[in-house]
Amino acid sequence: MQGVDLGIDGLSDYRTIGSGGFATVYAASEAGFDRTVAVKVLHSLDDDGVRRFERERRIMGRLASHPNIITPFKAGYTNTGAPYLVMEFIEGGSLEDEVRARGRLPWAQAVDHASAAASALSHAHGQGVLHRDVKPANILLAGGVAKLTDFGIAAIQDLPASQVAYTLAHAPPETFADGADRRDERADLYSLASTLYALLSGRAPYDVDGPDSQHAYMFRILESEPPELTGVPAPLAAFCAQALARDPARRPASGDEFVERLRAARTVASGDAAGSVTYTAPTGASATVSAPPAVSNATVAAPDAAVVPTLAPPPGRRNVRTIALGAAAVVVAAGGMGAAALALQGGDTPTTTTADVQAVAGSTPSEPSTTEPSEGATATTAPGSASAGSDTPAVATVDDAERVGSLVPAVFVAARDDGSVVSGNFIGQFEIWDPAELTVGQSLTTGQVGDLAPLDDGRLGLLLYDGRIRIVDPGDEKPEIELAGHQPLEDTPGQVGYAIDELPDGRIVTAGVDGVVLIWDPADPEGEPVRYTGHRDRLDLGVLTELTASVWEVVVLSDGRIASGTLGGEVAIWDPGSPEETPFMRDGNGVLSIDELPDGRLVIGDTESGVRVWDPVTDEVVRFERHTDWVYDVQALPDGRVATIDSTGLLLLWDPDQPDAVVEFTGHLDDDPEREGVRAWSLTRLDDGRLAVAGERGVLVWEPPPAS
């Protein structure tokens, strides 16, 4: 830039080399030292901008001694009063420039750059500084040596942190999980792992430039695994997967450990050692870097899932939800409500998979248990429910489960009226398949989905994550219909649309975070919906929060009435023609799933690892307590038995009137019972009596044993 004079002693010949939202960077000549320097001049002169500048100046002063951090020379104010910082000038550009020009880098070179940046972060963290914006654009190359720069939004222990944090494409999941600032050194290391992923693949782990909204993008970071790295040695791909774990506890704990683990992976990748390399973390705990296990027809490797501060409830009888609320939901929920995470990633067309089925017999029943009467119920008694602490059962293994489709994991699975089955995942990829041949006949992609209901006319009813309702024809024979839907709660980010089903007259029933159940007529898209607000009307705002009325489940019963359940544990049955007349019960356990038994009782899966069987005529409630985690879906069978599945992947088949006889299906169970995350989400009964179960290993089709 010609004619620029910033009034800085000893500097001249300024030219602009970069400009962003906060500052402009110039190259300038410093004749006294016969060198070119970089001059960063802040745009904003407001109080926050000046504090930001002072923070960066002090941070860089602390860190100046490290060879992989840009060296500052001096700071002050220009002749116009703008703060400036004079730094080392790097001619080589940034890693972002390298990727843009060359695509993916050679893996050995990428490892070198990431190791250098990790060393810089280790030094910064040792000085009490978090960078908070590690990305390829902030790692410069000086003669091929990587140097970390731009500490403008860093956090320092003895200074207040800036409110601006992270570039979206490389932000760690905990940035978006709730309003609290839970980031520590491992957040920087996640961003560095994301940077390494970009160097190895030519793109960030998550596509921030896609058609989805930023909100949808942030939810993908919270709930899905990045695509698997290809074209790089398996140990490096495994390392990136570990370092990008959504649970910070699964990542390297420090910059030094990051370097050590990365070097171990490089050693294996270089062929200098066979098999896996065991390293010792600074805490003394051992860990292993190795390639992921190969997929065979006996086992299917499932992606890591980790605990994140989100709630992810799911489906009912024929509709499937993935609910993700922020910290407010955690506060509202009962103490037993854990956190869950979805793992969504594509997969090649799989081979048929054999899964374990355990028939459990000979258990010793527990003593009859009694629960306190719920609000709105006259009696709640529980005759002999089975106990998890029963004697060791005799186990018989049956190998008759087969995997169908290419979606791994699968979140949705629902039978259609024509006998076919639709399965899909949260990001809107669906397959329609023939249960007799187990072959996929049709695939389609929609927007980000919160729930699915196959409609009687062959179309699919979709309740989108943002609350909109979309009706699509898989054969594209009928035009798509989109209806306005549910509204978000103020100051409560997260999923808006939760559940969808269809009434016998073809109208659509939906439920959402706003605590309202809506009934829509697809034949009259502009018409006003029927609104059921009973859950909200009964809410005592002096005791509970507005979020407690969020409706997580809605199903249409055999008599045309509607059953709906809330986060606060309330279940109501109401007539769409007279919604004010409502029998209801409430016990405080969040309702995840509801289905109707042939005798009219309701089976209710909840967030407290239990299943309630409620008779709305007598108000009797029987509780089944064999599960150990959230009961994500329940399916009532024509013979009176119930299939229930929890987030660990365990499916139990049992009779509400004889709860001691239980069959276990373990096809989605993980070998590591301590690993956090969701293994299975939904199930549906096929016309021939088999069950299709959607989870981490795709859709598994299992033939349950006949009732005794």
Summarize the structure.
The chain has 708 residues and is an alpha+beta fold.
Structural class, from helix and strand content?
alpha+beta
β-strand number: 43
N/C terminus separation: 86 Å
Mean model confidence by pLDDT: 75
Strand line-up in the sheet with most strands: 15-12-40-39-38-37
> Rg to the nearest angstrom?
28 Å
Main attributes?
708 residues, six-stranded antiparallel sheet, five-stranded antiparallel sheet
What does this structure look like?
With 708 residues, this protein is an alpha+beta fold. The chain is built from 10 helices and 43 strands. A 6-stranded antiparallel beta sheet has the order 15-12-40-39-38-37, with no helix packed on it. It has a 5-stranded antiparallel beta sheet with strand order 1-2-3-5-4, covered by helices on one side. The longest helix has 20 residues, at 107-126. It is elongated.
Would you spell out the secondary-structure blueprint of this structure?
Blueprint: E1 11-19, E2 23-30, E3 35-42, H1 47-63, E4 72-77, E5 83-88, H2 95-102, H3 107-126, E6 129-130, E7 139-142, E8 145-148, E9 155-156, H4 174-177, H5 185-201, H6 214-223, H7 234-243, H8 255-269, E10 277-280, E11 286-289, H9 327-332, E12 357-361, E13 369-370, E14 381-382, E15 394-397, E16 402-404, E17 412-415, E18 421-424, E19 429-434, E20 439-445, E21 449-454, E22 460-464, E23 469-472, E24 481-483, E25 497-502, E26 508-512, E27 517-520, E28 530-532, H10 534-537, E29 551-556, E30 562-566, E31 570-574, E32 584-586, E33 591-596, E34 602-606, E35 611-614, E36 621-624, E37 631-636, E38 642-646, E39 651-655, E40 658-665, E41 680-685, E42 691-695, E43 698-702
Antiparallel strand pairs: 1-2, 2-3, 3-5, 4-5, 6-9, 7-8, 10-11, 12-15, 12-40, 13-14, 16-43, 17-18, 18-19, 19-20, 21-22, 22-23, 23-24, 25-26, 26-27, 27-28, 29-30, 30-31, 31-32, 33-34, 34-35, 35-36, 37-38, 38-39, 39-40, 41-42, 42-43
